Amino acid sequence: MSEHPFVTIETPRLRLRPFTTSDFEAFARMSADPEVIRYLGNGLPIARINAWFEMAAFVGHWHLLGFGEWLAEDKATGAFVGRIGLQRPEGWPATEVGWMLTREHWGKGYATEGGRAALEYAFGHLRIKRVISMIHPENVASIRVAERLGESFERRMTVNSRDRLIYSIEANEILPDPEARSIGV
């Protein structure tokens, strides 16, 4: 792992960049929104202190594994869109691509755009061979995103006492997005 593991990626509309302490308020608000969080974790809004720990874990994940979650912001406005990225905590069945967006950014294609960039980074730079998404069975919007990313339903499993659908994609199944480019290592 490099001494400076953080990478920033730009897509046509998004900047995927490392989290900083100045991002905490926006992240805490999103994490406390019951509609945003209902299919994630235990489905309950995340308290401020736990949002802080989660954000710190994103930063730590980069240091420990050399990849992780990015803060997603709208390039044109600088607005906080959410988080998009890769994770593989202890006990996870594979590296996961995931997304969590503020409600005002739902339905705009940001999860697909950022998810595609994350997959390209996983396959192209990290040389990961297979990536999954673990999705709550009722989260129809995320299932659609996974399918748009080229992921296919693999199986159903219990993760942290919650029922999840596992969607997956192999490195050779994704076509690169010529508009996405890494701008920093």
Account of the 3D structure:
With 185 residues, the chain is α+β, with helices and mostly antiparallel strands. It has a domain at 8-129: Gcn5-related N-acetyltransferase (GNAT) (Aminopeptidase, 3-Layer(aba) Sandwich). The protein is 30% helix and 30% strand. It has helices spanning 24-32, 34-37, 48-65, 110-124, 140-148, and strands at 8-10, 14-17, 69-74, 80-87, 95-101, 130-135, 152-159, 162-170, 181-184. Strands 7-8-6-5-4-3-2-1-9 form a 9-stranded mixed sheet, sandwiched between helices. The model is unreliable at 178-185 (pLDDT under 50).
E-strand count: 9
Which series of helices and strands comes N to C?
EEHHHEEEHEHEEE
> Under CATH, the topology of the domain at 8-129 is which?
Aminopeptidase
CATH homolog superfamily of the domain at 8-129: Gcn5-related N-acetyltransferase (GNAT)
Major sheet, described briefly?
A: 9 strands, mixed
CATH class of the domain at 8-129: Alpha Beta
Low-confidence sequence ranges? 178-185
Question: What is the topology, as strand order, of the major beta sheet?
Answer: 7-8-6-5-4-3-2-1-9
Distance between the termini: 12 Å
Q: Helix- and strand-based class?
A: alpha+beta
**Cα gyration radius (Å):** 15 Å
Helix content: 25-40%
C-alpha geometry: globular
Count of alpha/pi helices? 5
CATH architecture of the domain at 8-129: 3-Layer(aba) Sandwich
Beta-strand percentage? Answer: 25-35%
Mean pLDDT: 89
